[in-house]
Records
---
Amino acid sequence: MALPDRARVVIVGGGVIGTSLAYHLAHESVQDIVLVERDRLTSGTTWHAAGLMTCFGTTSETLTGIRLYSRELFRRLEAETGLSTGFRPVGLVEAVGDDDRLEEYRRVAAYQRRLGLDVEEIGVREMAELFPLASMDGLVAGFHVPGDGRVNPVDLTMSLARGARMLGVRIIEGISVGDVVTRRDGALPRVTGVRTTAGDVECEVVVNCTGMWARQLGERHGVVIPNQAAEHYYLITDRLDGIDPDGPVFEDPGRYGYYREEGGGLLVGLFEPEAAAWRPEGIPDNFSFGTLPPDWERVGPALETAMSRVPVTFDVGVRTFFCGPESFTPDRLPAVGEAPELRGYFVAAGLNSVGVLSSGGLGRVLAHWIATGRPDVDISAIDVARFQPHQLRPDYRRDRVTEVLGTTYAAHTPGAELRSGRGMFVSPVLDEMVAAGAWLRDVSGWESADWYAGDGEVAELMPSWGRQPWFAHWEAEHRAVREAVGLTDMSFMGGLAVTGPDAGAVLSRLSAGSVDGEEGRITYTQWLGPDGGIEADLTVTKRSNEDFLVVVSDTARGHALAWLRRGLGDADVRVEDVTQRLGQLNVQGPRSRDLLALLADADLSDEAFPFRAARTITVAGVEVLCVRITYVGELGYELHVPGERAAEVWRALRARGTAYGLRPVGLRALGSLRLEKAYRDWGHDIDNTDTVGSAGLGFAVDLGHEFIGRDAVVAEQVSPRSDRLVQVLLTDPEPLMFGAEVMLRDGVAVGDVRSASYGWTLGGAVGLASVDTGLPGEPVTQEWLDAGTWEVDVAGVRVPATVSLRPLHDPTSSRVRG
């Protein structure tokens, strides 16, 4: 087939992801789609995938939906295309060998059942009946998903490709894309075509579906896709007498293995705890259907552990021993969406060894996004904009993939953290935090204090689902903010300086709140999509008519920066990321004004420095931007300090703060304090599928000006949604919540907890949850909440709860304005 001169969409890469996207774009009625594959369809990774189609194991609504859709698509696709996908719903058995993993999986099962996955906890005897080849030694329970199973990756890809061709998609093999052609379009360049070995093709959209080559293609235009290939192993035994070809997939993450029938033998797959990167310097362009030489010395012990779960594998020959590359991202989540650096450049890569089982749903999600301009699922955790340039470094990718592949089968116990690639950015008060006994955790590449053991002490933490000795430190920090004063380093927060003659007009058009009013004022606001979906949740400080500071959370910084740049057009505005130039020190609590007044050259009285005031003052001899605002529900101030002088201010506050009960406060207390006050966090409690109405943020909207999404906000006031974000508090003080617990009203699941912590002031686990009346046009009201009996499913145990639209701590905000 000849390459056309022009197309609307060019998909680069003919694996299972690229063909699924082509199929779904065609079903979205997108015309003029071309898929180009440098070799043959399935080359790279798809051809050697193990073919699992399993939905169990995630507390992400988006990822669960993607997997459930994929499973259903694989079931029905043959009827449409005439080509089998090889899907066989033989079931999944997930084995559990320890209490921590049992706790995790009970929580996962409860969450995914609410989303429609048929999963049940079973005993050891039932597991033995379902998969008799396995030894049950050391196992305590299992989880059975009867609808899961297996699929043939090559057959699936060919079926998707035929379905796409039937709807007019042109699929051309043997053509490589060497470059993407762009032109300047306002603040950002825009895709205008691709340059291939067979000529140029004009296009509006290009989609990078090149798998383990995605990083290399993206880097040519500054697009950050830090996926890295690693060795991945499986073996297939000779024929085994009595093996059931329709037996379930069996997974035992505690022994690093997954198992299923293959050609009359047994496939034993491996996710070893310490992996090996492959070619961090770059994947060869001509690598297609290749394999890698196995490292027996490294993988031998882990492979032996995996085989020991099915002892018969030691007594039968090995037909195939396979080592091939799979690519992983730094957080083991996909890289999806429009690149923040280049308009019209989309990405679907970094599938972390779950590309086949995600392919159907991921293709549908991205196709809808491209066709309509908006995703219809929460993309906050998978958005390619979350990645940062330092993650492209070869040493970072090598070290991170070595560790992150091993977490595929690790227990995800609270407190467990990755240790590689740490400390990419250094807080200006890092030494002071360490001296105060900080337990450091990674926050988007920054080392930040989670809690403090005390001056001169060494913090220790053991991952656990239960209470730990360090909870006493956490409680003390929480109470210091409620009763005295706390000092928190927030230097990791994203800071965007927006300056120029049109800065106010641009920010006003983007912001649902009124941000371009009087100087010296901070505004809490949201940026909305045309459909009213929340794209950012942040503050805008107007320092002068042409000088604004936007502050956004670390995890949302990339997405917000991209949204801002796309909204600039031809305006006379400059945007500078000043995150690493400024330190942010927060002084919060009822005695914060008294302490700060000792060190400041300004009148901080309520009359002179009211709530939301923002002024440049001197604190401890250092000029700072002081903003009276809070994220913990108390009187407090943010100090934006030049990075090189932040340590001076920290030391001065600590020295004078002793008399006022000041304590250094970590992020653990920040979380418990903000959730008691029901303050939202984008990417955790709210996302692009929420609106200001459903999120309970209508108070932050000013309809007196024009802004993106205004019509949608007005329409929702007339026809409100049936879902709403609410605060939930367990009435029993003992159970803990961590997020993703199921909400029950009168025994019926109506939502789930999005973020949770322990409310030391309120006396129980507290969180924010999304609940739904289930009746279109019938909004959640306090009357509806009060009319029901509320419980929360905590790992299979129903715990009574109180649910409220208003914050349970200081609902009138009198303490904030005190």
---
Amino acid sequence: MTTKTRYTTVRIETDIEKNREEQNWTKVIELAEQLKDRSPNFEYLSNFLIGEGKLERYLEEFPPVEANVHRAKIGLIEAKRFLQLAANDNGKKAGVALDAHLLLGKLHYACGQYADSLNNYKLADLNALSEKRLPVRSLRIVAESFAIKALCLSKESGSTSKYKKAEREDEMLRCFQIASDLSLLYMQELDKQQTSSNSATGTHSPQPPAINKTLSPILEQALQEAPALLLRQGKSCTALERYRATLSAVESQGIHSVRLKFMCHLAELLLRGNTCDEYKPPINSPTRDSPWKPKQYASLNQFIPRNECEESILVLLVAEAMAVRHTVLSQSAEFKEARLNAFHDATFVYDLLTLATVRWGQVTLLQESLERAMKFSFEEPHVWRQHALSLAAAGRYSDALGVFKEVIRLEPNESVNCLVAARLCYEHLDFPVEGTNFSIEAKSKELSHSLGLLGRCHLYIGIGYQLQARMCLLKQEKQALNICALDNFNNAVQLEPNDHLCEYYLGLQLALTGHISEALHHVRTALALRSESSSTLHLLTLLLSASRQHAEALEVVEAALEEYPDCLNLMYVKAHLELHEDDGEKALVTAKQMLELWKNLYEGQTISDVPECDRKSDTRSVFQLYTSEMSDKDSSSLQAHSVAASRVEHALSEVASSMSSFSPRPGPQRAWLLQMEVWLLLAEIYLALDQPADVQQCIQEATQIFPLSHHIMHMRGLLHMHKQEWAESKLCFQNAVAINPQHVKSLQQLGLVYHYMGSQGLAESTLREAAKVDPNNHITWYNLGKVLESLGEYETASSCMSTALNVETNSPILPFTSVPLCFE
């Protein structure tokens, strides 16, 4: 009979331990009561188990938070009675008093009795516990004890002594750190236990295990408080190491959400900067020097970040993989809350990833990540907008515009989305009509749902009409577009009197329509509002040159270059001013400086083939493509016929590459095109200095970059004209015009060549075509007057010469269209 009783007792004890590990507290209480009835010798153990079961079962339903304190004081009376029975001297003899005191500390914490909780941990001599291997359940009890002790210390008002306060904070930190390590170890042991169980039963079920494997609120709070307390103490470098240590621990099921939060916190800390005096990479092979330390990842081939950039992006990419893995794709109402929570976690990661990648110039990486986010971002405008912006930053402007159209649909009352789409159309896609329509749509949205952007809407509408007017060849339609642009710029100035961009564009519009003195007034007002704008200084220089104040213009551009030494636009204007002042040697020096500057700015891109990451400031070069002959109508790449011509050139160059040994230069083509423009400027200067051999060499350098550019053909034609090789020059200009029929300078020179060759009829028709394209070019009218004079049409010739004189009085050193678009 005694043997049977002992067998039953052992079986009950085994079942109790199994149910404790599985946290089946109702069953634990039931078995403990059976054990107490069958074996009075186990009374104190049974009391402890019943008290433990009642405490844990209650806290599963009502977590130990401040909102539940009053409820806990009543709901835990019975659990407290049983645990106190196990915590006396007899319980100490039975070996359960220590655990009973630890659980009483947890019970008092749940009841808001923090001093009593700390007293129980003192009675248990918690700080003197030896670091040895513990059963899984004991790991949790000890981990929670250290966490609760630290939380109780934080609730204590205590002494105001600075020394006592520092002592208490040090003890809190030590307890939080021990609790964090034990928490991670506890979860790892649970995983190991579950793996062993599956292996023993031979199951490979993908279903989650029955054991509750999520961290308790207390342990989760301890994990988060350990680095947070270090940050509050100003020990950011130590906090960084704490985050790293936690994330280096071997991952276990149930702490995914905590790891995701830690990755985001670590990334935030790294992005904040100035964490440590000097960046120190994570330790490669951490050692597990204590049985209370969690197992950490270690490998010979483990990647070790070398700087903040690599570590922040690495952490966020891992966080992205975790966040995406837990997203909910179903749009059913029953999954709404889970879907929104998962989406919130993912967007938080993506926002941090945006900061990290843009800061370090890894926009393509961001764009790829946001593209993956599209599958779970149905009808979510924030992610769609981020995706559109990343596409634009990566240079995929057409795709960005398509995504922005969807964002506009998702946010029908947001005018700012329409304005960004309009900017894309103006700045990169050469869609001025579509950009104007977006701006008008933004204005209508702003009138119904104001965001304070009405002035900016009028500004963007004006820019659209201004760009359309540049493209238009019909005089009446051109005038109407210019009037619309002027009206909108005036409205913008009235609505936003302190916005330098409104004054700048109003000045530019007046300059384009020949009102030089008024334009000067508004440009000076724009500079008063923002003196550091390089585009405004550029426009002021051109206006001064149009007023025949070339010396003053040169002073302005030189002063601007002291502020913006890497602005190719300003250097280009300076070279032309110096050339105009009959100082070709100085112009030559400036052009050579431009070539050196190009090397500093762009050579790294062309070697590494890394996409350009524009610096967001006025000091960056916004040098327009195809600006080597800045007195022609297509001097700005923003005009449709210029873009069309460049596309033809590109196609022809591809044909040339397939038929010859030519191959495109590696790297971003924009950078090479800028270099081609500098070579053509050098050729123009050498031609003015009567050095044809150097001109030929510069043309050859440009030809190796873009062999079939109409600009190169034009320069080659000028060289033949210089040598009076009329037939060859005619062929070059004809080829240039064949690629770009609106290339004014080629038309001018072709007409002049026809005149020298005696083909006056062809000369007249060619020059009239040039005048139709750009009626404000004095060279065209002067050449036409010469041709008409040779035909004996003296009265018409005189009228053309007079027009040339009138137009020249308002002609800048370079056309006003050479000023790049400015939006900042």
---
Amino acid sequence: MAIIDTLSENRTQVTSFVLVFTISYILFIVIYRLFFSPMSKIPGPWMTCISTAPETKALKEQRRTQWVNSLFARYPGAVAVRTGPNSVSFNHPDAVKAIYGHGKADTDFAKSSWYDSFSTTGESLFSTRSKKRHAMKRRMVAHSFSAQSLLSFEPYVDVTIAKFMQKMDEFATTQEAFDIYFWFELFTMDLMGELALGNSFGVLEAGKPARYSALVEQSQRFSNIAGLLPFGKMSVRILSWVPVPYIQKLWAARVEYLEYARMALERRFQNDRNKVLPTGKPRQDIMQRFIEARDPETGRRMDFDELRAETSSLMVAGASTGSVTMNWMIYYLSKSPSVKSRILVSLEQMFPDNVDGSKPIPFTRLNKLSLLEHVEMECLRLHPPIGYTMPRDTPPQGAVICNVFIPGGVAVGVPAAAIGRSPSVYYDADRFDPDRWREQGADGATMKTAFLGFGYGSRQCIGRNVATQFIMKMIATLLLRYEIAMENPSLVLGTKEFTILKPDQKYRVMLTRR
């Protein structure tokens, strides 16, 4: 009995020691982060110093971008705010260049572990963290987004725009007010189906979204939450084990989404890879270019899993961001008749044989209309599809960013939505004014540096030209073809955050054939 009592007493002492040690360690970490860490002087709510809970809560409540913006408003004049124990957001053009610009190997800011959660069946151009693998992938697919490729994609854009206009003609005939953003989403989903999978989803004809679009959103939300966990690639699997209905719903959507992408890509391989057009040449869409792509240095081609990962990434990047940008362009042009009138006059002068918008508009001529492109840029400044920080890790030795020292291994970045409305960069920052992009000299250069609508540096969106092509063609065709009026001209739209920033309420327009 004495031995048993001794063992029991020892076990109690060990348990007490472990408990005291654990509590002491936690207290030490909390005190260090609050008062002695090199980042303790960076402004931010005290909870962000010790936990990612505030950011996670904001993400779940679909207001992470607004939350970060509120921190900068709470600490006016601060170039940096603490958003987590190991994360800092900046709001200055110099930080854009320092974090996202081209640096030397020993001062490079690598992508953070947040991106690992977006790697699905393999690393995509977006999710890969390796600078070497990113450079290799970019070499392989760069030709897919060249000017020559844009010409080969244009017939698919024209066909899909024609289908869209058939639906718009019906609304113009009935004079019925309708939610144009809903139809933009259907358009971009069908178009990206054509370009990425070789076949549209048929959602324009059906007049309702495919289940795939909901799966994309839910899967991206799961990745965002997983990216806040400090476990790198394991965070996705760890999060999938959490027995919370909300998490399990998002995980099930991710699994279904990836399976859908696999089956769609397999159909593409079986049915369309060798498909030839009347010209006798293979079908030239984005996926065909990806299939044929070779690394010019090694001759390597992408395997099926890589193609599947790129397909998933393309569907998100092209469909979601394109539709919301067109939405804001129509919204602001409806509220800015003078700007809309100037664009229309230019379009009628450029295309005198197509003043009713009944013919496809060639992008090789349309891309010379700088005012229309400036409208796109201004909408992306005010409402970037991705408003929060695209995180990078500071180099091991740390870095000084805007005179603020950040230790090594800290996730840093510049939120596009915050710097896009920075009054120190943009005059009348909350006002829609596409003419600001005509600014030359130092002010113009600073504005362009702070513009993160397509990212910045070597990692900026490689599909920018493709997106600009179909966005400008769509808006130009709508303006030539219809008089567009908002049902409620006094309506003011805000944003609500899903994976991307979307309008916070529906707004309806009415069309009249010109």
---
Amino acid sequence: MPGTSDTPDAPPAAAEAVDEAGDQGPSGQARGDERRFRRYTLAVLTFGLLSAAAVSLWLPFQPDARLWWIGPVLALSFLLAEQLGINVDVRSGISWTISFTEIPLVIGFFVAPFEVVLIAHLLAGISTLLVRRVSGRVLYNAGAFLLEITSAFAVAGLVQRAMGSAGMTWPAALAGTLTAPLASTLLALAAVRVLRRRMRIGTALRLTGRILVVGFVNASVGLSGYLVIAGTGNAWPLVVAVFLGLSALYWAYSDLLREQRDMEALSDVSLMVARSGQQAAARPASRVDDLAGGVDVGEWATIAERIKDQLSAARVVLRLRLEPTATMRTVVAGEPMPTADGLGDDALLRLPGAHVRHFRITEANADVAAALLDRGAQEALVVPLRSANQLLGVVEAHDRLSRWRGFGKYDVQLLGTMASHLATALDNRRLLATLRHDAYHDPLTGLLNRPGFRQVAREPLRDRTDAAVLRVDLDVFSTVSDALGYVWADRMVIAAGRRIREALGPEVPVARLEGASFAALLVECDGPRIHEVAQRLREQLSSPYLVDRLTVEANAMVGYATPSEEEGGEGMDVDSLLQRADVAVRATRGGEEVRAYVPSMGQIFLRRFQMVTQFRQALEEGQVSVHYQPKVSLPSRQVLGVEALVRWVHPEFGKLDPDEFVPAIEAAGLIGVLTGFVLEQALIRVRKWMDEGLRISVAVNLSVRNLSDLDFPKKVVEALRRFGVPAELLTFELTESGVMADPQKALPILRELHALGIVLAVDDFGTGYSSLAYLRQLPVDEVKIDKSFVLGMGTDLGDLAVVRSIVELGHSLGLTVVAEGVEEDIARDQLEAMGCDVAQGYLISRPLAEDRLEAWLQARTARSAGRQAETVLTLLS
């Protein structure tokens, strides 16, 4: 081709890089581009044939005996000029080749007719394309070749006639020669428009100007050489020397241009990888795999296409391990692989180190030759992508298209540098994927965590009502944790997570929220189907667990919530559904083990929320008060002390049960405020009794959260000092389950309190699961028998035996035994007969407000005159 060759480096069907960044367009757009380019090719070929026929009629063929050798020499000259060309990338997938074809063309004007030059150029150009295996664009280039030579001879003929010369003149030959690259450039720019590739007008004008300058230089050299040789027979060595000097300049320019192009390509690939990484990190997750930093293979296909264009390769294959534990995925740019499933491990992939290896089928051993033949390639550049001796992937480039000589040292250097960048990018992507996976997954079970579940469930829940969020609670977790340790509890959680995954399938998002609480997202399910799945899931989770050699019984509760028609879409988010499912789970504790959320349950949550948020205000406004329930000595019937019990009269909800608001306040982290309030009120009451000459102790209930406060003993000391109350008149009551929740943390606090002289009592004794094992370790002074056993003594021999055993156990350990729930005379008499020390219950008194307690003391007690410093109150019979 004279001057320039304007051909896309890849077939139009595969050329999809359309803008400055090389983004890949949709497949529908690519197919449309292919159809337009086919029509354009047909138009160029048709117009070229018609133009050639017209010029042939205008410039009739004149036979000459010398043509038998001039024609082959011209064809060989065109062929050599094509092979000595310099490739210039204009856009990804579009390139021009600056060649020396103007030299044989300008000489052809003087030594051969139009038809011979045309055929020689066609043979040289088409042969070059076939050798390079660019079979998908032969027709377009054939039409371009026809138009180049036709326009060149047409212009030369017009100039010649305008000058009135009968033979070819050098101005006519020069003008015709410059017309060929100009026609080639115009055809290529039209192809860019047909393919809808972006090119600025300024870029097109600069490119056209440079091509004309190069064409003018080549044509001038060829024309000068021909005229000198034609006029001076011995001048050909000088012409050859000038030609060699010009060739050296071109090659130097080619090296500089190649280096610049390689730097640009390297920069492009680096930017593509960086941008794809940023897009992957910013892309919202709609699947579980996305949370692991999943990579779009289309992004790597664009990178492979850019490498292929830069190397002028027939095919580039990227084999990438996009995830640490995944198998390699294959991305192909250019000619498709001969086998649809790619190639397995072969001689080309077993590469030591991280260097580029260059294989040629003519120089390879049998294994390498077989691997090349399997790929349908004659040569290949192969380089592994490694990081810290770990294989991340392999890059292969097959068969260079632009030169007969194949891949050179510059190609090897460029691919090696690109591979280094790709390896670093892959390593960074894998690290990012690992960090993202850890951020959104539970490390124990491998399931999603709460943030991960929120990310994955957000999109499926958008604008739909046929979905449900399930919450599953396994109620045996804390029991196993306290009895066997956290290692065994973790095994239970892992087993439960595995059962949920097997029951729901791999496509259902499942998360571990905390402890033994799980969540799952169901889509495209109606109400009955959701309940059926929840019921089946509960049954599977409630089956016994085989943990090592132990069989652990378990029970599961399932609650679920669905977006209603009114709340579907943006108004119903994941957190709201999780919250409602949690409310439904709490409702299962009433007996039904699978519950769907109903709006009335929301009122319970709202009520609890109001209690927590209004608690401090309730303290300030006097809504919260302390009532006192007396405790008496059974042998002497003397009042020994009282238990301080908190009461709350809410302005909207009325009287609130402590079992309702105390757990809510404790969960909200306000139990310290409540304990401090009750302690202060109780000490004020004891101080008043002391001022009246009475010595009555007061018992205050502690929470497990109080025992985790390292400053709690200091606060108690400060309160006792401030009110001037002796430590022995203060009793702290603790539930055994609260102490056993974390004995390592609670025991130091208890020992410190006991050392101050404060009486410590274990409340609700007998209902726990490990009291006998820990009772001797606890620095306690009293045990309080749970009222459920005391109430059942009269009718249940088992309860009677339990009470007797606790009394005997307490006395054997030197502890005072207090019985709660004494409501009948027979129970009091039985306890007295057993030797129980103290009784408390409705038989003695209900919890009383402070003013009513004073009235109760005045009405039912008498002062003992024999004591002045201390007054003992005796219960009147």
